[in-house]
Amino acid sequence: MGNTAERYKAGVIPYAKMGYWDADYQPKETDVIALFRVTPQEGVDSIEAAAAIAGESSTATWTVVWTDRLTACDLYRAKAYRVDPVPNTGPGTKTEQQYFACIAYDLDLFEEGSIANLTASIIGNVFGFKAVKALRLEDMRIPVAYLKTFQGPATGIVVERERLDKFGRPLLGATTKPKLGLSGRNYGRVVYEALKGGLDFVKDDENINSQPFMHWRDRFLYCMEAVNKAAAATGEVKGHYLNVTAGTMEDMYERADFAKSLGSVIVMIDLVIGYTAIQSMAKWARKNDVILHLHRAGNSTYSRQKNHGMNFRVICKWMRMAGVDHIHAGTVVGKLEGDPLMIKGFYDTLRETHTAQSLENGLFFDQDWASLKKVMPVASGGIHAGQMHQLIHYLGEDVVLQFGGGTIGHPMGIQAGATANRVALEAVIQARNEGVDIWNEGPQVLEKAAKWCAPLKAALETWKDISFNYTSTDTADFVPTATASV
Amino acid sequence: MTTQKGTRITQGQFSFLPDLTDAQITAQIAYALKRGYAINIEYTDDPHPRNTYWEMFGMPMFDLKDPAGILMEINNCRKTFPKHYVRVTGFDSSRGWETPRMSFIVNRPPSEPGFALMRQEGPGRNVQYTLSSYAARRPEGERY
């Protein structure tokens, strides 16, 4: 830094020169590290852009302030320490030049146990900053010391399975359709049929709260009648994700308490309620022995485009810290965005106790999850029984597979749709365990089961040609063979 | 309608499939052993979904690595309790799990009367539900 008096002379100096760039910086074990994808404005140097992001997401303002000298300002300054060009961007490609910038933040910049505080820095002002044309938060390394200040998932995969008494296979669900308009009585009919037919869970959709056509208490009462009747018919634990999303925390607590009093094993919330509300509901869920499902309503507004916003894997990390038990994380084969390699990165982030750096899966850092419980990913949107082998191949067995249209749209009715899915699921798991190559021989496994299961036969015929083969927008920057490093 | 006739309790991994043959059970055991799971055999005549602790047919077989030997134990259990539910679980002791990773039924009573759903009506249309197994209304051992 040279002469300190010179450094703090009133005026404007480049961020890199203010101490927000340090090429020699070695991140500490306790640092929070963020990796941004930066598209600098014309004429802005990549290192200056990275330093500016470090500055604006920590202590800096646009001009020198003498009050820095009242603090241990070197510690509080975030440090950009590494900038690399993003492969396949810049001159000669279709994409303007982008850079990956690594920025380290000292642990003392953040309040313990607060996603709101963490995000107010990392995705606060900085995303509107003029020096960058676009900015995307790609990944974060959260130190163990910080993770230990978070509750984490209220229940976790292990305890959820023990409570439900369901092991060794994906759980099966469906979202009640139509999303809007059913009365409580009609709505509960769909829930009952689907659960009795073989599903483990039925789900409210994200925008079912308490509208004129069906108020929440009515829905809860009819759904619990359906859940209990189906449990009696099958001898299994059944559940319905009662959406408690509402306009205020008070309303959400009231709805969640009512769900609990009716014996529901699970409630749900939407991502749009905000990080603090999610953390509050996670604490409520832990305290009340209720599983907490999160619908990621709203995420695609900022997670889908590659140059700006944030990657969904960061949402996965924050939600594991915030404490949800379920989160929708992609299907690969269904109707919603999802590149297989990227989805693997999301699923690993939610379910593993430790994830190693894996650039092809979009994981930029080693991450130790410090005994935070595992989140159950949910695969939902445009999937059907005929894809069962592909779903299990990509997603494994610790996942909730949700077939909404693929259950309710079955030609023989909702129960038959549910049975088709359950038989397909059990047949493919059995075959996989027996050593069958389900990726290649899955269709034959399903055909064989369809010989004795008429609902499965009908499902395979109805949806045999349905697939959603669109190119993903959010894909890896690194192919498995690449030697590029960040 | 479903393909099910009457009541069939559908707990476990494979209850929607036809009952597993000995060869199919052996294949599942081989899979569990390959994954390092310890096999446990349990039986009950009270299949209430919240009846977590079925009786253990001996200790979990931590050290038995031979699927044929395990199948023999399963058949011993089925012979001793032909009208009980018998389930096989695979227990994973690795860090981060330490829980069953597999569970499937290998024996069930010849007829399964199922559960009554009792409703206790409270204020505000609030109903408290209780499942009651028809069979479990008789004493243990005389239920099926």
What's this model, at a glance?
Chain A is of the alpha/beta class and 486 residues long. Chain A contains 19 helices and 15 strands. In chain A, strand 14 (376-380), helix 15 (388-395) and strand 15 (400-402) form a beta-alpha-beta unit.
What does this structure look like?
The complex is a heterodimer of chains A (486) and B (144). Chain A is of the alpha/beta class and 486 residues long. Chain A is built from 19 helices and 15 strands. The two termini of chain A are 27 Å apart. The relative contact order of chain A is 0.11. Chain B is an alpha+beta fold and 144 residues long. In chain B, a hairpin with a 5-residue loop joins strand 5 and strand 6. The interface between A and B is large, with 46 and 45 residues.
Write the layout of secondary structure elements.
The complex is a heterodimer of chains A (486) and B (144).
Chain A: H1 4-7, H2 15-20, E1 32-40, H3 46-56, H4 73-76, E2 79-85, E3 99-105, H5 115-122, E4 132-141, H6 144-147, H7 156-164, E5 171-175, H8 184-197, E6 201-203, H9 216-234, E7 239-243, H10 249-261, E8 266-270, H11 275-288, E9 291-295, H12 300-303, E10 309-310, H13 312-322, E11 326-328, H14 340-351, E12 354-355, E13 367-368, E14 376-380, H15 388-395, E15 400-402, H16 405-408, H17 414-433, H18 438-452, H19 454-462
Parallel strand pairs in A: 4-10, 5-6, 5-15, 6-7, 7-8, 8-9, 9-11, 11-14, 14-15
Antiparallel strand pairs in A: 1-3, 1-4, 2-3, 12-13
Helix pairs in contact in A: 8-9, 8-17, 10-11, 13-14, 15-18, 17-18, 17-19, 18-19
Chain B: H1 22-34, E1 38-44, E2 55-56, H2 67-80, E3 85-92, E4 99-107, E5 115-121, E6 127-133
Antiparallel strand pairs in B: 1-2, 1-3, 3-4, 5-6
